UniProtKB/TrEMBL annotation:
The keyword Protein transport does not apply. GO terms for molecular function: ATP binding; ATP hydrolysis activity. This is Lipooligosaccharide transport system ATP-binding protein. It comes from the Bacteria. InterPro entries: AAA+_ATPase (IPR003593), ABC_transporter-like_ATP-bd (IPR003439), ABC_transporter-like_CS (IPR017871), ABC_transporter_ATP-binding (IPR050763), P-loop_NTPase (IPR027417). Belongs to the ABC transporter superfamily. Coiled coil: none annotated. It comes from Nocardioides soli. It is found in: Cell membrane. Pfam families: ABC_tran. Residues 10-240 form the ABC transporter domain.
């Protein structure tokens, strides 16, 4: 068997996961390098969480090859789990003890000496900006604070790879930005990040490279900017017409754009210059109820590749 080089943190080839007759992950190839921030983007049900659970060495592989830090999760599960951090989608904190106790007890699970755990807990509380909440009960924390505590807990063993499943779902914009800032700092410290998300702005902010998943397969791979350049135009003009008029309006403007997408509530015109396109629409005597010109995003890439939006 060929040896996996030291910079390969995760290597998957033809990876599959089945639940009975349902195939959640249908043969994917993934390589994550040391120090990368790697993303899995896709809607709920795309197979992202099933992939993450296999990578976390808590869910057996149904088919294909998977190596984490050069090891096989089927035989080296404990060794893998000792060197990775996992931040699950649901906060699994113990709500009846304090913030500090949550971290301390978790550190002791890893067999770290008491003195080292105490130092590490202080360090992590400062890192996630919860020092002043150290004595607070977990149930009294806001959603954003709980999320930061979950991240701190996943870092207690100084992991080489941190797995984050939908890290900011349910958080308000300000809380999301605080979490992003902490994750960005971790990456600067050399921690390899692997995250799943259905928020395209999150993946654009955090990931150097990503795969787009849909129905258990990878439909595209690349950097955020590279994927947008390959699969979309520079700008998008969004036009909203009166209820029931979007479909008929589409036929009147389709020659003004590289492509037109008809969504239930609006038209998307893909074009190099959105303002110019909107001006031409008005020249034709069409009066949208609202217009917006924006740059293309990964949401547009996903729509192009799958014919549907990320948040179904």
């Amino acid at each position: 068997m060929s040896t996996v080089d030291a910079d390969s943190m995760i290597h998957a080839a033809g990876l599959r996961k089945s639940f009975g007759s349902f195939e959640a992950v249908r043969g994917i190839d993934v390589d994550v390098r040391r120090g990368e921030a790697f993303g899995f983007l896709g809607p709920n049900g795309a197979g992202k969480s099933s992939t993450m659970r296999m990578v976390a060495a808590v869910s057996p592989v149904s088919g294909g090859t998977l190596r984490i830090l050069g090891m096989d999760p089927a035989t080296d599960g404990p060794q893998i789990r000792a060197r990775i951090g996992v931040c699950p989608q649901e906060d699994t904190l113990d709500t009846e003890i304090t913030v500090r106790e949550n971290l301390y007890i978790y550190g002791r699970y890893f067999g770290l000496p008491r003195k080292e755990v105490r130092e590490r807990v202080d360090e992590l509380l400062e890192f996630v900006q919860l020092t002043e909440k150290a004595g607070a009960m977990v149930e009294d924390l806001s959603g954003g604070m709980k999320r930061r505590l979950t991240i701190a807990r996943s870092l207690i063993n100084r992991p080489e790879v941190l797995l984050l499943d939908e890290p900011t779902t349910g958080l308000d914009p300000q809380a999301r930005h605080v979490v992003w800032d902490r994750l960005f700092r971790l990456r600067q410290q050399g921690v390899t990040l692997v995250l799943t998300s259905h928020y395209m702005d999150e993946v654009e902010q955090l990931c150097s490279r990503l795969v787009v998943m849909d129905k258990g397969v990878i439909v595209a791979e690349g950097s955020p900017l590279g994927l947008i350049a390959e699969h979309s135009t520079r700008e998008v003009a969004e036009l909203r017409f009166a209820v029931g008029e979007n479909e008929s309006a589409a036929g009147k403007v389709e020659d003004l754009a590289d492509r037109v997408e008809v969504l239930p509530d609006r038209l998307l015109l893909y074009t190099a210059d959105g303002e110019e396109t909107v001006a031409k629409v008005h020249e034709r005597g069409l009066e949208p109820v609202a217009t917006l010109v924006r740059r293309s995003t990964l949401e547009d890439v996903f729509l192009r590749l799958t014919g549907r939006t990320l948040v179904d």
